[in-house]
Design goal:
The chain is α/β, with parallel strands linked by helices and about 375 residues long. Helix content is about 40%, strand content about 20%. It is built from 14 helices and 15 strands. A 6-stranded parallel beta sheet has the order 2-5-1-6-7-8, sandwiched between helices. A 5-stranded mixed beta sheet has the order 10-15-14-13-12, with helices on both faces. It has a two-stranded parallel sheet with strand order 3-4. Helix 2 links the parallel strand 3 and strand 4. The protein starts with a strand and ends in a 9-residue tail after the last helix.
Length: about 375
């Protein structure tokens, strides 16, 4: 088997969907019979704050390895975990390692068809270690697949800047999270414009509420919440929250307010039994109570009947909202329902034939 080709999966900002793209790509290429490896040369933190010391393992690497059942022979080693301690060692001169030389070892491992390497959060991160997206692409003589969140049509500026910077190394782009009301515009205007600029568009991915959601089990971890009520037969890792609503008004206004949202979490005070009932009468997947950790027998009975978990948090409403909004603002892969959504979306929207052709990877005759 020939030496595997390398492809860097990069983005211009964190949370663009690199890991999701890698997961979907690998899953479908495996199904087609290709031998695909994976690596994340620089392990990056997943919170907004730079940790003092990162975990020894890399969560994305572990998750993708387990989800796709990758043997250790198909994994590239993580060369560095990015945290405050690592940066201080580098800045002080204590760490003088030549990571570009370590990256050279990647060329000598793995035989196969393709190795997907996950780049840092943006195009600048990792530069001080010689492990930025551009530095790694140059070192490995590898193309770059750029993954972008849509935001607006202004995404084109960031893509054109990347094209100017990376030149022929830019294999193409995947554009994620396109709102339904702008999807037609993206197809009819953005797609042909980018193609005219010599930028292949492999996929235009519509907005997916499931991918933007967060499980109740994840909310419990992030909030340090206590479960006040929950049916025993419910798996909280599969109960997904797509929206957040705050209950702090009169009950008549609340009923109309709550009916406008689906699969939501509602935050309200433990003393506001009227609002708790109003929330339970609409599409609510989780009830979060602030203040004294108390739930009335009537609310507990109703919640159990409907299969809605009720949590208590020892935080003020503003802090609770901030944490949940942060969770909803990220695509956290480590939930099974999202893996299914990602793979389904890639099958529908990603141009695998064009991808294999531009990567110069031979299509199997039996596929």
């Amino acid at each position: 088997m020939p030496q595997a080709k390398h492809l860097l999966i990069g983005s211009t900002r964190a949370g663009s969907g690199k890991s999701a793209t890698i997961l979907g790509l690998t899953y479908h290429l495996q199904a087609k019979g290709y031998k695909v490896g994976y690596g994340k040369p620089i392990g990056t933190f997943t919170t907004k704050e730079l940790p003092e010391s990162a975990e020894h393992g890399e969560a994305d690497v572990d998750f993708i390895q387990q989800t796709l059942n990758l043997p250790s022979s198909l994994l590239r080693p993580t060369l560095l975990n990015l945290d405050r301690a690592a940066l201080q060692r580098r800045l002080s001169g204590e760490d003088k390692a030549d990571y570009s030389t370590k990256l050279e070892e990647y060329k000598k491992i793995i035989e196969g068809d393709l190795v997907l390497l996950e780049a840092p959060a943006n195009t600048a991160e990792g530069t001080i270690f010689g492990l930025s997206l551009e530095q790694m692409a140059d070192n490995l003589d590898a193309p770059i697949l750029l993954v972008m969140r849509f935001g607006s049509l202004l995404v084109v500026d960031h893509i054109l800047m990347a094209k100017n910077r990376f030149g022929d190394r830019l294999l193409g782009v995947v554009i994620n999270d396109i709102p339904d009301d702008q999807y037609e515009t993206a197809i009819e205007i953005l797609h042909p414009y980018l193609e005219e600029q010599g930028i292949p568009v492999f996929a235009l991915m519509p907005e997916n509420r499931t991918l933007r959601s967060v499980s109740v089990s994840e909310l419990i971890d992030q909030l340090g919440a206590t479960i006040l009520s929950c049916p025993e037969n419910i798996d909280l890792s599969k109960v997904m929250v797509e929206e957040l609503k705050i209950g702090a008004m009169d009950v008549n206004s609340a009923q109309s307010y709550f009916r406008k949202s689906y699969n939501k979490a509602v935050i309200t005070g433990s003393s506001r039994i009227d609002l708790q009932f109003a929330a339970l009468e609409t599409s609510t997947n989780c009830l979060i109570l602030t203040g004294r950790p108390y739930i009335s027998d009537d609310v507990a009975h109703k919640a159990m009947e409907l299969g809605v978990p009720v949590l208590a948090v020892n935080k003020d409403t503003l802090s609770t909202v901030s944490i949940i909004e942060s969770c909803l603002g990220q695509v956290r892969l480590h939930e099974g329902v999202k893996v299914t959504s990602i793979c389904d979306m890639m099958a529908k929207h990603f141009n695998f034939d064009r991808f294999l052709k531009l990567m110069n990877i031979k299509a199997y005759a039996t596929l």
